[in-house]
Amino acid sequence: MKTLMNTAKAEDGATAIEYGLIAALIAVVIIGAVTAVGNNLSNVFNNVANNLSNAATSS
């Protein structure tokens, strides 16, 4: 009976799984944010390059 009670109280495995799920969720959010910022930054650099090219050809 004592062994059964100790097994029921042991939550190490469940806690590890919860921490793993939290870490995975944080990783997904970070990947999404980096992807969005990267795409926006790429658009900004393309706009700057196009404006410089247009300024150089119109001069």
From TrEMBL:
Positions of transmembrane segments: 21-38
Annotated protein name in UniProt: Flp family type IVb pilin
Keywords from the UniProt entry: Membrane, Plasmid, Transmembrane, Transmembrane helix
Pfam families assigned: Flp_Fap
Domain of life: Bacteria
